[in-house]
Amino acid sequence: MKTTIQIVFLFITSIFYSQSIKLEGFINDSKSVGLEMANVMAVNGVTKAMDAYAITNDKGKFSLNLKPNTTYSLKISFLGMQNKEVEIVTSTENIVKTIVLQEGGIELDGVEIVREMPVSIKGDTIVYNADSFKTGTERKLEDILKRLPGVEVNADGEIEVEGKKVTQMLVDGKKFFEGDTKLGSRNIPAGAVDKIQVLRNFSEVNQLKGLENNNDDVAINIKLKSGKKRFWFGDISAGTDFVDRFIINPKLFYYSPKTSVNVITNFNNVGDVPFSNRDYFRLTGGSRNTIGRGGTNFNVSSNDLGISTQRDDKAQNIENKFGAINITQQISKSWNISGFGVLSSNKTLTNTQTKIGIFQPNSTEIKTNENRSDLSNLRNNLAIFKFGSKFKPNVNFQFDYDVSLRKSNQTEDNDLLTNSVTYDSSGDLIQSNSIKSFKKQGPIALNQSVNMFWTQNKKSTWAFEMQHLYQDEDPFYNPDLQNDPFPFLGFDSNQSSFNINQDRFVKTNKLDVKADYYYSLTAKSNLNFTLGNTNSYQAYNSLIFQILDNGDQSILNNDEYRNDVTYGFNDVYLGAHYKFITGKFTFNPGLTVHRYNTFNEQLSTKVEDNFSRILPDLFAQYQIKKSESLTYNFRKTNVFNDINSFVQGYVFSNFNSFNRGNRLLENALQETHALRYFKYNLFNFTTVFGNVNYSKTTDPVVNRAYFNGINQVSEKVNANFENESVNGMLGYQRSFLKYYKASVNLNLNWSKYNSLRANPEDPSDPLIDFVQTTESFSQTYKGSLGTQFKIWPNLELGYSLTLNDYQNTTFKTKQPFVKLDYFFLKAFSLTADYNKYTYSNTEGTINNKYEFLNSSFSYRKKDAKMEYTLAATNLLNTKTINDDSFSQTGYRSSQYIVQPRYVVFSLKYNL
Fold first, then answer.
1. Burial degree of 862 (CB within 10 A; 0-12, 13-18, 19+)
2. φ and ψ of 864, to 5 deg
3. Three-state DSSP class for 443?
4. For residue 143, which phi and psi values (nearest 5 degrees)?
């Protein structure tokens, strides 16, 4: 099979070359200096079609494959130069030509050439002509993005450019649901897209461009076709399997110079998840998120009870209701407002079989094996509302205000059976339990931010930022157990079951304020002085009680099992940075002086920790070429825990996990090094990117755990050792021979973590604890080759190999995949997506194979309003899939049931 594919590929390649000649040469300025990233386009004199295009390399070189014996109009454009048009008549011989451009071009002169070019360059912006990459099967923006050189869409729907996640999506220059590019990539109709602009070195504040290190920020702006402006457009689709499955998906969009309205809805029970928990937390609500760059890591953690949302796209049954609206409005030339609202309701049923291995306290040999059967019914209701205002009366002043409200209401019912064996020389311990549990939480969070930027003069620029967070959490946990996992708690055993209840209430008020002053010494250097403050106040209350058979409550009043805690954190800091450019190098070293004051008050006493620390950081970049760079970042950071790590009373985190914090905790110190390489060569449409990150944490906060079979009691402690991790990524993408696109990706992650395990001989004595060191090494290799024909079927072939090495065990996942799309007879579209998984481990105890095939067949005549689609998911009716995870105390391997085959017929009306 492999040989046949190679022969076919070589045959097509030979045909392509036998029918073309090469025109190559240089585009120079009047001083014979090559112009990098000039646009070159060859237009057929007879058909008026563009037969070839190119972007010059760093030496001004271009290369085009043209038809022999044909007359061409060669069009050249470059920003700041006069456009030029040269007639070329080809024969059967290759041509070499040097073309000189003259200075003084007007920017608008190049508009027509850029409009026709499939790819063009304008400063830091790459412009893709969407129609040049369409084959006819595209239905949404994501389908076009996957065909663009240097652009990828990951499994979560997030857009990545040159290996970096896109931080902002704009449509005709207007914000589209800030922070989550998935909503745009999977909902904007492909037919409405005219241009896709990749904005590198993106900054929402023009006054700070060049003053900050924003080289890694990338945004995408979607330019709509002229016929889609000042009119409502979109589509309304509905489908059914004529039994009990359905999907209803209306999408409406309106854009004008001053107003934009986007409405997206989706109601289905076929497993299509329009809005996940990850999307919920990705929506930014407008904060610039620069305050945390001062050298302090203090994050407010979530008390989310571990509600099972990690598999909300693959489960036994999924029902979704989703609605979102995004509005922007230009009030005046200097004032713009925007906002969005998102409502999501999700019901998910999961059925999971899990094997768990728990290590010996002083080694990675297995001490306990556990088998679990877990049936979970989750109801997840999410809401986000955001309003933003931007006032910019002139180029020297900008004032932003943003407020966002998040509210969720989540409940989960679990039926769980567990059986375990703990190995011991004196006799194995066999345990079993049946648990019915209920979890409920309804957290609310209000975020506000105020940003002000003022350019005082050519030398001085001021920036003021303030963010406030109010968060109220109320997680409730109710496990009803057949057997008591923790007899020392003193629950009443003369009951039909152990009906345990736990209330927790956590409130947070956090204020961040930062002022920056930038003083430009020269055009290539500036000083930056920062004064800031982070202040947080938290309150934590928890209570554990047992519901008796007669309905009475038996409360655990011991201070060991209840909490009434307040925690305060304050960080005042002053920083100084000096940024300068010399040749191709940019440096920005800095120091920040911090004064920390923390306290926790509980058990009628107060513990304080006050100290100062100086933290260095460094940014350095080597701009090898315009489209090639090497960037290094170094930072030392103080890592602080929030109130959850300081509560002295025990709380349940799971039916078999009982843990507490430690009021005497101190902060950890983290050192990070990051190296990133990037090269984008539009001369041969090659993208190479890679990064390596190293992190070392000194005096980390770890769990000190004691296991009795599968039951765990743990507490937070500072450990006198270091935890390390290294992760790296390398990507290579290339488009060649006009119709082919290849990519190779490599991801490596290594970590070495230490934790403490209590000695079973005396768990109360920390002096005889075991230090448990675990190493993990994860590798993912992925390669693919695809076609981009206009009239032939398009095929993508790929293979992925993932190796997860956990001490003495390796989990291996092999994944070959094939994707097909074919537009034919000017009306029919066929798409198919096949993935095969082989999941195994080195011990031979796991060897599972499963495969997925999804396909759709559509009919729509050109310019017709109605489209008919027959779509099938899980055509092979795969029953289960697998995953695995690893921690310092053991490993987990799970198999869970997925939705069966669905075949849905749908109608779509295009507005």
1. exposed
2. -75, 150
3. coil
4. -65, -35
Q: What is the pLDDT of residues 10-54, one digit of tens each?
A: 444 444 444 688 999 999 999 999 998 888 989 899 988 888 888
Strands 740-757 and 701-708 turn out to be parallel
Euclidean distance between CA atoms 677 and 829, whole angstroms: 39
Q: For residues 262 and 566, give the distance between their C-alpha atoms in angstroms, rounded to a whole number.
A: 43
* Beta strands per DSSP E along 302-443: 317-332, 335-359, 366-394, 397-422, 429-441
d(CA 752, CA 681): 37
Q: Tokens 């997506």 label which residue? A: 833
Q: Which amino acid is at 211?
A: L
Coil/strand/helix, residue 116: helix
Per-residue pLDDT tens digits for 406-439? 999 999 999 999 999 999 888 888 999 999 999 9
Q: Which amino acid is at 267?
A: F
Distance CA 414, CA 71 (A): 73
Long-range contacts made by residues 98-103, C-beta under 8 angstroms, separation at least 24? 98/25, 98/26, 98/27, 98/28, 99/25, 99/26, 99/27, 99/28, 99/74, 100/28, 100/29, 100/30, 100/32, 101/27, 101/28, 101/29, 101/30, 101/35, 101/38, 101/76, 102/30, 103/29, 103/30
| Separation of first and last alpha carbons in the chain | 45
Q: Which of 752, 630, 742 is nearest to 691 (CA)?
A: 630
Q: How many CA atoms lie within 13 A of 742 on its CB side?
A: 7
Question: Smallest Cα–Cα separation from 39: which of 66, 67, 75, 82?
Answer: 75
How far is it, in rounded angstroms, from Cα 647 to Cα 475? 16
User: Using CA atoms, how far apart are residues 573 and 593, in angstroms rounded to an integer?
Assistant: 5
Task: Give the distance from CA 139 to its chain's centroid.
Answer: 23
The structure tokens 């002083």 sit at 362
| pTM, 2 dp | 0.88
**DSSP 3-state of 15:** helix
